[in-house]
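Could someone model tryptophan with this protein?
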Amino acid sequence: MEEIHPGSFEATQERSLKLEQDLTLNPSRYRVLTGDRPTGRLHVGHLFGSIQNRVRLHKLGVTTFIVIADYQVLTDRDTFEAISENIRQLTIDYIAAGIDPDDGKTFIFPHSHVPELNQLLLPFLTLVTMAELDRNPTVKEEIQAAGLSRINAGMYTYPVHQAADILFCKGNVVPVGKDQLPHLELTRIIARRFNERFSASRAVFPEPHPLLSKAPVILGLDGGQKMSKSRNNAILLSATEDETAALIKRAKTDGDRLITFDPVKRPEVSNLLSLISLSTGRAPEEIAAKIGDGGAGTLKKTLTETLNEYLRPHRARRAELEANPDYIHQVLVNGVAKAREVASATLDEVRDAMNMRI
Ligand code: TRP
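Reply:
Sure, complex below.
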């Protein structure tokens, strides 16, 4: 088997920009596949980082499958009690943010409900080596972060399962953050090896392209690390305005009263300025100049007002959706039905290619 060459990050960024242009011109050539683990509620980091990017692609008219990767939750934690509630909450936030599952082009589904997708895992596992799985840098980091003493085999193999998430619908564009690039490279290798080994005359799978998000990484309110619910530094989309105000009040800043935008030297203050910028569309430098020597108090007050105002329509939509559980259920049932139809056709092709007809 040929080796995996991830290529440089710069080259990926450049290809991502070209792809971005072609998506606008020819949306019908593309099929977007994206996904999340249902490990908790979404926060403003998700909204500004990945969800809005999806909404934008969605509005270009690209067919989009959103996989809720519930099996992946079992790789690095013991808890599973909240999975189905988290699936519902994710769906609510996608729709509240502007994803329209009734447009006939957008399908949201948990992968545990699509047996034909999961079955692709079996042939795919034979296309990669143990050494390749063992080398995956994102998996290594996750093992470290979770502090696991016993690592289950699902942890090593979930990137192959993720290839099935992407390839079952022949997704060719995958909007991702940097940490997911090793998984995408593995998916491309699996597609290539499958085609070469089983279907040399006609490719069954496309090699999907990563689309890097342009939004900056949003730090948590502690300013030191990425916003994340498990690090307790997040503003949830489902928080009330008062809860949001209280969280921002406790946010870490520094002792300098003069507010300036300097992400390297003043990460905490700059992160709050970025959040105001994302909520208002104004440049962070301009916001800093306006606050001037008003200090952290004025900065926090401005963020509380602008963020709450920005999130108000989202929160109103999510309250309506919360009150309508039958609708959310139906969205997921429809998503599963479409995913099964598409996965079933792909699995037929895959079995044919492997000479497993009966
Ligand atoms: N591993 C991704 C994450 O942790 C979630 C995911 C599962 C995913 N399947 C996917 C992302 C397919 C993109 C494509 O965020």
